[in-house]
């Protein structure tokens, strides 16, 4: 059973999301919050598997709440899935940098929301390549790095790990990375986990950001 905490300041929206999640097989709503501060408090007390986090909330917003949750070592197993109306894509990049595992729009189909919760719980970053590149193209400014040169920020990575990070940045799953490099899926997953540890990344989504910011993956048209 996947435990879910729903955080949204709009009671009607929150109620609808709670109802949707509660009726999905294998999902259980363990708490509700109307603002970011309450979401953090409940996350620490309830330790849900996934927090469905709104962005714009009074007091502490969803990005700040996401950062507090993801920066807390005691909540290392808690995943945050941000809900957004896409009014401002900058919020999404901010959420990913704060440690969110992904995002989806509030207008998504019910099945998509349920699938997203399950995907995030399984350790996947809910980032479609098209949506991710659109956001990165607009808001992430890669560092200037000469061809073949490893950025200083990635000095702790081996050559293979830089290669792995590049593929993650391109939106490849572990299975796709394994096929591309002709290694086992288990080995691919091990490499990804090591990269996350070395870069202090809470989630795979942050590796995507790191790949773009360090010039391993170039924005379209760059």
UniProtKB/TrEMBL annotation:
Classification via Pfam families: GerE, Response_reg
Listed GO MF terms: DNA binding
GO biological process: phosphorelay signal transduction system; regulation of DNA-templated transcription
Positions of post-translational 4-aspartylphosphate modification: 54
Keyword Transcription appears in the UniProt entry: yes
Domain HTH luxR-type: 150-215
Domain Response regulatory: start-end pairs: 3-121
Keywords, alphabetical: DNA-binding, Phosphoprotein, Transcription, Transcription regulation
Protein's name in the database: LuxR family two component transcriptional regulator
Species annotation: Xylanimonas ulmi
């Amino acid at each position: 059973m996947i435990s879910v905490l729903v955080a949204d300041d709009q009671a009607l929206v929150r109620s609808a999301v709670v109802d949707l999640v509660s009726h999905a097989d294998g999902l259980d709503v363990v708490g509700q919050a109307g603002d970011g501060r309450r979401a953090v408090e409940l996350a620490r007390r309830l330790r849900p598997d996934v927090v469905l986090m709104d962005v714009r909330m009074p007091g502490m917003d969803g990005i700040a709440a996401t950062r507090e949750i993801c920066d807390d070592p005691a909540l290392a197993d808690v995943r945050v899935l941000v809900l957004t109306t896409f009014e401002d894509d900058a919020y999404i990049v901010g959420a990913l940098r704060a440690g969110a595992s992904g995002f989806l729009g509030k207008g998504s189909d019910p099945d998509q929301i349920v699938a997203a919760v399950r995907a995030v719980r399984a350790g996947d970053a809910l980032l479609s390549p098209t949506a991710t590149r659109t956001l990165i193209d607009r808001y992430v400014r890669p560092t200037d790095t000469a061809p073949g040169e490893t950025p200083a920020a990635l000095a702790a990575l081996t050559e293979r790990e830089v290669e792995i990070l590049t593929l993650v940045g391109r939106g490849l799953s572990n299975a796709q990375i394994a096929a591309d490099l002709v290694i086992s899926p288990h080995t691919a997953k091990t490499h990804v986990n090591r990269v996350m540890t070395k870069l202090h990344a809470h989630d795979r989504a942050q590796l995507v950001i790191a790949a773009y910011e360090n010039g391993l993956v170039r924005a379209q048209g760059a």
